[in-house]
Amino acid sequence: MPPPLIIDPALLDPDQLLYSREEIYQALPQQFEFKQLDGICYYDPDKQIAAAVRDIREDEWWVRGHVPGRPIFPGVLMLEAVAQLSAYSCKYIHGFRGMVAYGGVDNCKFRAAVIPPVRLILVCQEVENRSRKIVCNTQAFLESRLVFEATVTGLAMPG
Hints:
Layout: E1 19-20, H1 21-27, E2 39-44, E3 49-56, H2 75-93, E4 99-110, E5 118-129, E6 133-142, E7 145-157
Antiparallel strand pairs: 1-2, 2-3, 3-5, 4-7, 5-6, 6-7
C-alpha cells in the first residue's frame, strides 16, 4: 500500500521554475554527470516541502549500459536526485548550516521503472532539522503516479 502523498503532484507546475539548474549547482557541489536536478518548481516554507523536476533523456551517460535496448533510469540516481533536492532545500531554502553529506536511507521503495524520455517530479519534506542532522521524506512521480519513496538522512560536514 502506497504511503500518503507529501503533496498531490497535480498541484505542481513543473514548467514554472523558482530556481534554475544553474542556481541549484552554484549552491551544491555536484558537477558534470551528477547534476541530477533541472529546476525547483515548488516551495512551501510552512510545510517545509520542495519539489523539483528531472528531465530524463535518451542520450544520458548511463543509458548505454543500464539495460541495453531498454534503458531504465538507475534507482541510485533517483536516490541521488532526491538527496540533492533535500540538501538544497534544507541548506539553501531553510537555512541549514554547513555542507550536507548523506548518512542514511530508510524505507526506500521503487514502485515502477522509469524509462526515458520522461519528466520525473521529485518531492521532499523536511521532518527533522537539527544543527548536525536533517531528515527528509522524499517521493518521485511520473505524472501523478508514485514511482519512488525514501527517507533520507543528511549530516552536516565541516567545510
